[in-house]
Amino acid sequence: MPRLITIAMSNIAKPKVAPPGAARLKQDELILQGTIIYGDDFQPIEGYISIRDGSIKEAGTGQVDADLEGIVCPRFVNSHIHLGDSAFKDPPFLPLSELVGPKGLKISLLSETPRERLIEGMRRSLAQMVDSGTYAFADFREGGEAGVRMLQEAAKDMPLLVRIFGRPAQGETETPEGCYGLGISSTRDFDPSLIQRMILEARRAGKALAIHAGESARDDIPDAFSLLPDHLVHMSRAEESDLRSAAQKGIALVICPRSNLITGSGLPNVKRMIELGITVGVGTDNVMLNSPNMFMEMHLISRALLHDDRQVFKMCTLNGAEIMGLDQKLGSIREGKEAKVMVINGSSNNLWGSTHPLRSIVRRAEPTDILAIF
């Protein structure tokens, strides 16, 4: 298990150059040395970063007296997850509607499972997220206000930043208190007039809007666009015209390819999304189907969907932070940003022999390769 090192919270042009054999910068600073996956373009540089009061105070090249050495990179942002079903993992292989639809297996199990067990499942998944390098995440909450309270209880004292996209309880229209946004499963799951009222109230309250669309079929994509969401989730059935519309409207997309494989929903056209300049984030989706391990999402995307390691890593870090309104303080290693970073062991049995650290992080790194997280 990686060491979790907690530090207090508190624009870089070029990294500073430290003199050869430089001594420790300041006694109250934490110094990380090695290959730094640096800046918003994630360029590997040999050097160091200094951390003070929870922020990155300096980044530079050269040797310093460091506290820890390794590959230093930003932690992950999981842009879409359902933590509520963590208590009943690995259900039978069923069509999507029978798994997670309004009358599906998930809804039935949520209603039958004791509250304490649901919270314990979420708490364990949150701990797994921490251990596998995730810092911030967006959860689609079922169950109205009661569901939101369960996640808040599970996340208490966890070193994670939570964005909750809540859903009103049946028959209600107001987004539950404590939510960052309104999360709609699909436009086909609700009466159109009810959706309009939910969105109107959410927007009046300054909430973000996210909608599942184009997962099992394309038919709900046009309606989702008409609601002017901040981002859409899945879009595995999207066609060229849909992707062009997303690009023209400036709507971000969040993909969940491992989940789409399990449910038979097809894989999203990530390459085309990137070519069109769409901001694409990545989520692990339902915990009952997948572990909340972002390394595994990167492995699949880099192998099957997009042979561009820098873009894949960006989707799982800076893009996710942008979608969640956090990119000014998270998602990349730059002076002034919060030091939400992890140190990866480039000499592990898994990574030894790597010729390009970023490629190896994206294609083969695992949580067991993490030395420490901050």
Structural account:
InterPro entries: Amidohydro-rel (IPR006680), Metal-dep_hydrolase_composite (IPR011059), Metal_Hydrolase (IPR032466), MTA/SAH_deaminase (IPR050287). One of its GO terms (molecular function) is hydrolase activity, acting on carbon-nitrogen (but not peptide) bonds. This is Amidohydrolase. The chain is an alpha/beta fold and 374 residues long. The chain folds into two domains: 3-75 and 331-373, Urease, subunit C, domain 1 (Roll), CATH 2.30.40; 76-323, TIM Barrel (Alpha-Beta Barrel). The protein contains 13 helices and 17 strands. The longest helix has 17 residues, at 115-131.
Quick one: biggest sheet? 9 strands, parallel
- The total of helices stands at 13
CATH superfamily of the largest domain: Metal-dependent hydrolases
User: Helicity, in percent?
Assistant: 25-40%
Alpha-carbon distance between the termini?
14 Å
User: Using only CA atoms, what is the Rg?
Assistant: 21 Å
Indicate the mean pLDDT.
93
Total domains:
2
Structural class: alpha/beta
Helix-strand topology string: EEEEEEEHHHEHEEHEHEHEHHEEHHHEHE
CATH topology of the largest domain: TIM Barrel
The number of strands is 17
Low-confidence stretches: 7-25
Widest beta sheet: strand line-up: 14-13-12-11-10-9-8-7-15
- Quick one: overall form? globular
Percent of sequence in beta strands = 15-25%
Keywords: Hydrolase
GO molecular function: hydrolase activity, acting on carbon-nitrogen (but not peptide) bonds
Protein name: Amidohydrolase
Organism: Methanothrix soehngenii (strain ATCC 5969 / DSM 3671 / JCM 10134 / NBRC 103675 / OCM 69 / GP-6)
